[in-house]
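[agent] plan:
  1. take the single chain provided in the ticket
  2. run structure prediction with default settings
  3. attach structure tokens to the ticket
  4. add a short note for the reviewer (M.T.)
[agent] executing step 1
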Amino acid sequence: MFTKEINKRIKIIFLFSLIPLLLIIIKVFYIQVFDYKNLKEFASDLWSRNLNIEGDRGKILDRNGVVLADNLTTTSLVLIPNQIKDKDKTTKELSKILNVSYDEMKSHVYKKTSIERVHPEGRRLSYEIAEKISNLKLPGVYLVKESKRYYPYKDLLSHTLGYVGIDNQGLSGLELQYDNYLKGSNGAIKYFSDAHGNNLNKTEKYVSPTPGMNITLTIDINIQKSLEREMNNIVDMFEPDMALAIVVDPKSGEILGMSSTPDFDPNNYKKYNNETLNRNLPIWASFEPGSTFKIVTMASAVEEGVVDIFKDHFYDTGKVNVDGSIIKCWKAGGHGDQTYLEVLQNSCNPGFVSLGQKLGKERLFSYINKFGFGEKTGIDLNGEGTGIVFPLERVGNVELATSAFGQGPSVTPIQQVMAVSSIVNGGYLYKPYIVKSISDNTNTVIKENNKKLRRKVISSNTSSIMRIALEHVVAKGGGKSAYIEGYRIGGKTGTAQKQENGHYLVNNYIMSFMAVVPSNDPEAVLYIAIDNPKHTAMLSSYTTTPIARRMLLDIIDSLHIEKKDNELPKDLEWTDKITYEVPNVIGLSLEEAKKALFNFQIEVEGQGDTVFTQSPKAKEKIEDQSKVRIFLK
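[agent] step 2 finished; step 3 output follows
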């Protein structure tokens, strides 16, 4: 009986001992068969180390594929301290090559860490320095690829593009706003070491980095180069406090060019102060617009039917009294009797006071709001301003009068150019944009911007009338210096007195010009402003319009706008050179050709009696006494 009890207990003990053993066997089987890969990766992670390789940032390109922001391949210094055999020698050699102190380099070489990036001395090394380090073949010293942002056109479009920091992160402009798209994914060189950092004899693995996405802009580099060139000319000639220019496609809201000064070179952004780096003036600056705002007032008056600009007249005595405030015309004694079209041509302030009074404050300010003043345009750039518009309850008769000719409201350049674009494009206020598309490294477009209508502001008939009116300003009014033979140009000058601490400054103005090309079917609207220019007459017609004309010629060339013969004839001034149309002399005798070309100098090529070709061609307009070559059979 006693023996049976012992045997029973032994069986029970054996059974309980067998169960854990079976569980261990099952667990080992599961590990060996089912969980082998996970455990292998976990074990590998314990001794694997990564030397990160930066992925290139995506490129930024203009509308035609010209690269505006690119990458340069550089190298950076990385140390694995436990693999360095002779720490003193390594410290001395590296400090000598990198031109840093021994103690500074020692802090990196002797650091108790598995991987040490030598920052900032070892970042973005030149080819020569990297080669010197490589030739030393020091254990534990590695050179890894890094990508450095590079702007091939230096200060071109700098405020819009922005710049990146030493770790390739966007810090301003498009580089910051689209950083998540532009930045790439890092790759790595994977090596293996024990817990002390000693190298294990295992094959290194290379994981390729992934470049960021590319951004294509609406910018046309040829138009942008023109703006930048003229900005530099403005600085040289006038030493302004600032200057800016914008070109927009009025039919879509695409920004074709945007520039301002002072600018900076994003390749060397550390040389500039924050004020220069972070103020994109075309979308940020806010100031009283002056007479370019008269376009808005007149469009509002035409739309409301309070005036027929071709038939209705205004008599300008040179000044007008509004509640005791005397508002003067720039011309002493006034312009006398004028149509309202001539009021715009002559930029007559009293005439615009009358338009404001005809509209009344409710209607005028409702249009000011409809045209987008006092609110952001929504452009896809950070840092946009809103400007300041009088609250309606604070608008008295004087505020109504001055607002009508552009003194009082504070507006941004981008607001002005978009408002005028809507006035000349048929009445459609579009949202401006500068990013056309975003694509991955296979050139597959993943995001694309298209024109977005904010609202319809005026009728197509009012828009047509305003295009005619603006063309008259250039052909017969204050914008004559922007006139281009063979092209229909519309425009309006502006001269706004600046305020400081509630008082207007003496001889301190913002001079501006708004241009449309071609005025009958606009493809581009240009706005240029110069803040406090020196060494010039205080009139925008002498300052901004000649510069705008040079920009317009480049815009015409870049957009391939064809020459036409139906432009409005220009009223000549004493400074204008007389031009004549070249007659067709092909087929005429030499004597007949000489008589027909009496306004020009003639150069004869060849021998014979009959003209078989000529240069310039017939119907081209050239200046009086210019040379015409005729070729005889």
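[agent] step 4 note for reviewer: Residues 42-47 have pLDDT under 50 and may be disordered.
[agent] ticket updated
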